[in-house]
Amino acid sequence: MGSLVLLDLMGGVALLLWGLHMVHSGVLRAFGPDLRRLLAKALNNRFTAFAAGIGPSQAATIEVRGRKTGRKVSFPVVVVPYEGDRYLVAMLGDKTNWVRNVRADSHAVLLQRTRANVSLVEDFSGNRAAILRRYLELAAGARPFFPIDRRAPLGDFERIVKDYPVFRVAPAS
Question: In the CATH hierarchy, which top-level class contains the domain 2-171?
Answer without folding.
Answer: mainly beta
